[in-house]
Amino acid sequence: MSDFNMAALDSFNRAISDNDNAIVNVDRENNNRLKYNGTFRSANIFRWMRSPATKAANNEVRTQLLKSLGEAYGLNGMTTRSDGKVKFSQDFINNLRSRLGAELKIEDFGINRDGLVTSGRPLTVRRIKEIIAKASGPDLNVRTASNVNTSASNLIINTASSGSESDFDINSYKNKLNEAFKKMKDNGLGGITGAQTCLSFLEKLGSNPLVREDPDYDFLCVTSNDEEEREKLVRFQYYDVNQQKYVPMKRIDDLANYLNDKDTLGMPIHLENQSFRPQKYKEGDKHGPEAVEKYVKHNITEYVRLVADLYYDCKKAGKLNDYESKMRYPGGCLEARLTNASEFKEKLGVTELSDNEVDNVRDMQRLADTGEKVPLHNCIFAELNAIISDPNAEQGDDWNAYADRVKKNLCGKKHPITEIYVNEQGQTAYRPVMQNGKPLVREITAQDLDEIGPKIYESIYE
């Protein structure tokens, strides 16, 4: 039997939680303890373009896992370079693969020719569970040396992020959220802090319209004699609560990116779900700038209301532990957070919806996000999110695990067909497939999904 030092994996053992989708990183500011950094749903489905810092953090924790496994098995072939990075020899990789087999999924580590981890893929609790379960199998002589350091520095720290509007009183809900934040005594409850950020945004916005037409637009159009200059004029503006002034808004994405910025709300909002498009707007159009303001304010106020009121509902029902768990992993985008909180409220019994009706909430959201005008890639995003956000759905680690379920819902439906490409910044992006000078709209086929689906799934690691 192999001599296996389970204590070498102590920190990863402590990283195992009830949330299989939690992403684990190394917290350098806290003695290299492990920490939770969001969830598979929030980090993957709604943050498709990974920053270099995120990729580096994912590589660091994967490197630490390989190193811990090597120490547990007593393997040679690990070398720390002068820059502090650990490289692994091919013999090391072969030895580890022979012991762990398919559960290791060594390709997910992206070992390059220099022996460094480069994939940038997130490491989830689910993957840690699978690897440790295989490593500590019955064929091993597991030992836990008493002299191995299992001090507090190895413990995991959870640092996860982060009615009608007319009767919504900001001060009242500010007091409610402050009370919840104070009583829960945990800055890692991203659901509460996210709601506080939303409330702060509304307070700073005040009575200012979120989106408006530039008051000088008509005047500049009339007075400008240069046609090219007139074409460069931007008709609409959004209110930047941080700068306390209006700034130009050429496209709806300008506002979406601003709201998603860490200094604003710090979470995505799917503004493609509302009808206003500044670059296509014509005088007299049914959906003007008030459409986007209504959409944003409605979702923000409903989310704040749910988070605050749920605290008191759970306190009364003696279910604050359930509330804490939900607030620790609230979701990625604002829409997902709102759906999750609504489902949680319904399951608490605050409303009289049946379990089947509760499950239908998720499906209703999926259908809303896959309307006939929604491009192919966004439909795939929505389908993946619906599966991953369902705690009762079977999960997986590649496109094949989800393909049949996505095909069942999308094949045969007409949508704008899109393709994937790499833009000038080296980022994965999507564009319409053109036919006779127009975007191609036709029924989605299984072949379409098999062509773009795996690339979309893999693009979360770029």
Quickly describe the structure.
The protein is built from 17 helices and 16 strands. It has 462 residues and is α+β, with helices and mostly antiparallel strands.
Report on this model:
- This protein is α+β, with helices and mostly antiparallel strands.
- It has 17 helices and 16 strands.
- A hairpin with a 4-residue loop joins β9 and β10.
- The two termini are 40 Å apart.
State the shape.
globular
Largest sheet: 3 strands, mixed
Unreliable spans are: 39-50, 139-166, 351-358
Q: Report mean pLDDT, rounded to a whole number.
A: 76
Features:
462 residues; alpha+beta; three-stranded mixed sheet; globular
Helices and strands, with pairings:
Layout: E1 2-5, H1 10-13, E2 22-27, E3 33-39, H2 40-45, H3 52-73, E4 78-80, E5 86-88, H4 90-100, H5 125-135, E6 140-143, E7 157-158, H6 170-184, H7 190-205, E8 211-213, H8 217-223, H9 227-232, E9 236-240, E10 245-249, H10 252-260, H11 289-317, H12 320-328, H13 334-348, H14 355-368, H15 376-388, H16 400-410, E11 414-416, E12 418-422, E13 428-432, E14 434-435, E15 438-439, E16 441-443, H17 446-459
Parallel strand pairs: 1-6, 3-7
Antiparallel strand pairs: 2-3, 4-5, 8-9, 9-10, 11-16, 12-13, 14-15
Helix pairs in contact: 6-7, 6-11, 7-11, 11-12, 11-13, 13-14, 14-15, 15-16, 16-17
